[in-house]
Amino acid sequence: MYKFSNPAQRIRSAALVAGLVAAATFATGLSAADPVTVVSWGGSYGAAQDAALFNDASKNSGIAINRESGASMSKACLQVESRAVSWDLVVTGSGGSAAAAAKGCLEKIDFSVVDVSDFIPGMYTDYCVGTDVFATVMSWNTDKYGQPGSPGAPNSWADFWDVEKFPGTRAYRANNVDGALEPALMADGVPPEKVYEVLSTTAGMKRAVDKIRELKPHIAVFWGSGAQQAQLMKDAEVDMTTGWNGRFDNAKKDGAKVGYTFNQALYDFDCMAMVKGAPNKDTAMKFLAEISKPEYQANLPFHITYGPTNKKAYEVTTAPKELIESLPSHPKNVPMMLPVSLDFYAKHRTEALELYMEMMSE
Amino acid sequence: MASHPDDQSSTKASALPIHIQGLTKKYGRMYALNNVDLEVRSGEFLTLLGPSGSGKTTLLMAIAGFNRPDAGSIRFADTEMILTPPHRRNVGMVFQSYALFPHMTVAENIAFPLKLRGTGAEETAQRVADALATVQLSDLGERGIDQLSGGQRQRVALARAFVFRPRILLMDEPLSALDKKLREQMQIELKHLHEQLGVTTVYVTHDQREALTMSDRIAVINDGKLAQVDTPHAIYNRPVNRFVADFIGESSMLPLTRDDTGKLYFEDHLIATDYQTETGKDYALLVRPERLFMIGDETVDADKTITFSGKVREFVFQGETAFALTSISDTHDLSFRFGTDSSSSQDSMRPGDPVSLGLNRQDVIVIPQTSDQ
Amino acid sequence: MNTAIENEVDPGLPNENQLRSQGIREQRMLLSLATPAFLMIVAIILIPVGWLFYLSFIGGDGQFSLEHYRKMIEYKSYARVFVTTFQVSILTTLLCILIGYPLAYFLAMLPQRLAGFFMLAVLLPFWTSLLVRTYAWLVLLQKNGILNDFAISAGLWETPIKLVHNMTGTLIGMAHIMLPFLVLPLYGSMRKIERDMMHAAANLGASPIQSFWKIYFPLSLSGMVAGSLIVFVLCLGFYVTPAVLGGGRVVMVATQITAILENQFNWGAASALGVVLLVATIVILYLAGRFLKLDAALFGKH
Question: Is A200 an interface residue toward C (CB < 8 Å)?
Fold first, then answer.
């Protein structure tokens, strides 16, 4: 059809063809490596994961990632239900992942790709691979109640509830029952190993909520986020609160007069889940495998005092001894704590929340 | 209190005179009122007439107590009112916007001043009914304000202003929002109402015709000063200066010269011999267009009539009258207005036609040429 | 024209049909102009609300069920949350009226230009983020916050007063955020009151206080009712401010909805709460409307 009547025109056409070919190659190249969308939380937590896990893992594996904040299992479920999934991997608490999995919002983890053979037992489920170990602890204003471990300092949930021995204000979890009932039962005299047995009945859950109801006049603030836990202690708005150990360590770094104990703390983990129908399922699974490797997890304690879930990380880490020993997953600390029961949350979370909200709304 | 001290049992309240002395009000450096003295006689209908910005509304507002003058005295009979707040002055007022309360019915609006005075329910109802009857709105008591026509609103505002029998009634251009026909009808009605109530009335308007129609006396006001206060007849026929002459009625002005014997001339026409004029001041002849008449072939008595000859420049037929602009010299024109009839040949005056116009010497009005006093 | 009268068969007046069809065409054009707005209302109001209703009647098993509504009766927290929500909304509205009415009155009395300047000050908070304003109140009001520190150092009180993480803090923050919504319509209705009205009242014998209550206040009522309604309805769905300044002690419907969504991913239960709030609001506005003759105030019929 075309007659190239002069050389200039011929050259121009050749250039056009070459350009088109190049563009096509570039386009297919792109689609072969669509970035994996990885969603985490904001603040010091997300920043720590970027620094320790995501950036290096992406560089070394060649898998491009698209980092977003505002991880939430409810949003993930909404994407699934509205058939508009744009997230691949989402950070979640262990309890949240269990509930989301029960709702059918998550993909099963392919353990032929993700190697969990060296993981601490229980730090992964069929739908979620643990990224870090944290503890829900009681923390207090050290000016008011003394340094942890010093004589007379609070050391148990019974002390948290004892407003005569430790007069002052308290803070507790708002509008969310995760990790809220167990301390109440321990304060009420239930030994840690019996806590979930008691909680497995409505009467047991009511007993826990009643115990919180008893403390409620002294609860000045109900906290809604990890950032708020740190802020409350920094501003000395309350004297004692529940919360996540890493947040308090970071608050202490910022000059807050805060201490906490692992005694009777709740041993828990955060994990990475894949949204059902994730757009880049295969590459996302490879990326999940990459960040689960010990060499990345070994860097996490430098940024936040949450422990690796991969046991090998403790062998390869270059972190100093004191730092390692301050992690909730350190063998010295683990026996003091009560591991969170995912089974309880999968079965009773809805009812527990209703009972908890009744107490909150009073 | 059972009844207000100013209340009278008869419908016709006794009226109060108003004495205004040295009233001065400045806005910035502008005088809105400049040392105004005015006597409003008991029971009279006095109109404040002037162009917009002349100070007539400011004067009315000062009487009502809505503005605070810089100096002066306002007495109702013997009582000094200048410091009395408006709600204790007990004067009725009709506003240009009517200012009827939209959240009240007609009857509630009219009852409002009575309720404030603690009038009993029965008497209130009776007086409201009477007031409504007076303004011929007896059936509309339960209407809302937004259901009334402009003329009806005007009447309600009026009824509300006199229902509590004030001894002074103020009206701020109350008819200006009405169309011409209704306005003329209301002028007559207001006049009757004034006669019926006998209340001292101060009326503000910029419409000279309205002022002439309704007033016992007119106070012409300009630049914050009173230019002339007199009866409508006197104001029209004996304006004291050029402003009053210009503002009221149509007129032509012809400059006058004065000889050694004190005679006044326009060009070669002798205009007056014995007018009280001051040496060294310029005077002008004021000619009202309707006072001129056309002179045909008949001879005229020069002692009684001044004759101006000229040419028609423009002619306009306006229904009941016709109007001709006539040049009587190279530089001066006279306006000429005359009544029409169906056969009159005057109706077909054409530009360029020669015409002779007569003016009786009794209609001669000589005024100072400049309006500064 | 004479021809139409003279002809035995009336052929119609000239151009009658053409003019009629032109009229119809114009009406259709006008209707078609309204279509985008109509479609928008369907898309952004009717469909989502309909979907909300539908979801609230779907149980965990995907079948029609009243379980979400049953749960609201079973647990007392729901009733309490609704009471708190209406309580906060009503109190905030009253607080806004208490602060906003004198403010709007002040603005309406000022010369136009000066009023514009002060209005800017009222509106300024509109342009900063809601979250920033809310946290600013936290910084001001908390136990060791600026206000307590100042008052203690000035000797006004000795131990910190609890101003936030409770109903007080919530109401302060909400009233601050809602104030412009009340002041704007109120100011508008006040500006419309002619000066002559007040002159007339005084002239007829009303003292300044009587003039205000009998004339000015009733005439400003339409703006106040409109503003109060906006504030009240906005408060009903408020989340951020009570969550931050309430310290978990002021649990409103929006908080409860978030808790259910975040913890249970239960759209049905959350939708049911939304439906009940919507219905309760409509019922309350209807009753208030009958009681206060709102339609008259809102649409300017006095």
Answer: no
Q: Read off the pLDDT band of C293 (50, 70, 90).
A: low
Across the interface, whether the CB atoms of C202 and B65 are under 8 A apart is answered yes
Give me the CATH number covering residue B39: 3.40.50.300
Whether the predicted model's global pTM rises above the 0.90 cut: no
User: If you average pLDDT over residues A150-174, what whole number do you get?
Assistant: 95
Q: Domain residue spans in chain A?
A: 31-133+269-330, 134-268+339-361
Task: State chain B's mean pLDDT as an integer.
Answer: 88
Q: Which residues fall within 8 angstroms of residue C292, CB to CB, at 6 or more apart?
A: C225
CB < 8 Å from C in window 175-194 of A = 175-178
Tens-digit pLDDT profile for residues C139-159:
999 988 899 999 999 989 888
Q: Give the model's pLDDT for residue C254.
A: 93
Percent of chain C with pLDDT over 70: 93
Q: Distance, in angstroms, between C298 CA and closest chain A CA?
A: 35
Nearest by CB to residue C265, choosing from A73, A175, A235, is A73
Residue B372 has pLDDT above 80, yes or no: no
Q: Is A13 helix (H, G, I), strand (E, B) or coil?
A: helix
Cβ neighbours around C116 below 10 Å, total: 11
Assign domain A134-268+339-361 to its CATH architecture.
Answer: 3-Layer(aba) Sandwich (3.40)
> Is residue C215 within 8 Å of C197, Cβ to Cβ?
yes
Mutate to test the interface with C, among B7, B27, B98, B101 (most CBs of C within 10 A): B101
Q: Is B7 a domain residue?
A: no
Q: At what angle do helices C267-292 and C253-264 cross, to 10 degrees?
A: 170
Helix (H) or strand (E) holding C284: helix C267-292
Q: Is B337 exposed, middle or buried (0-12, 13-18, 19+ CB in 10 A)?
A: middle
pLDDT-derived band at B45, boundaries 50, 70, 90: very high
Q: Is B262 left (phi over 0), alpha (psi -120 to 50) or beta?
A: left
Q: Which CATH class is domain A31-133+269-330?
A: alpha beta
Reported confidence tier of residue A66, pLDDT bands at 50, 70, 90: very high
Residues shown for chain B: 373
CA separation for the pair C138, A271 (Å, rounded): 33
Same domain, B215 and B278: no
Q: Which residue has the tokens 């100096």?
A: B71
Quote the pLDDT of residue A260: 96
Mark yes or no for CB contact A176/C265 under 8 Å: no
Tokens at B79, concatenated: 């009582």
Question: Distance between CA atoms of C167 and C249, rounded to whole angstroms?
Answer: 7
Query: Cβ distance A286 to A278 under 8 Å?
Result: no
Quote the pLDDT of residue C11: 64
Report the distance separating Cα A352 and Cα A356, nearest Å.
Answer: 6
DSSP per-residue letters across C259-272: HHHHHH--HHHHHH
Residue B4 lies in a domain: no
Please name the CATH architecture into which domain C76-298 falls.
Answer: Orthogonal Bundle (1.10)
> Which structural domain range is residue B322 located in?
252-368
* Mean pLDDT calculated for residue range B234-263: 88
Tell me how close the Cα of C272 comes to any Cα of chain A, in angstroms. Answer: 15
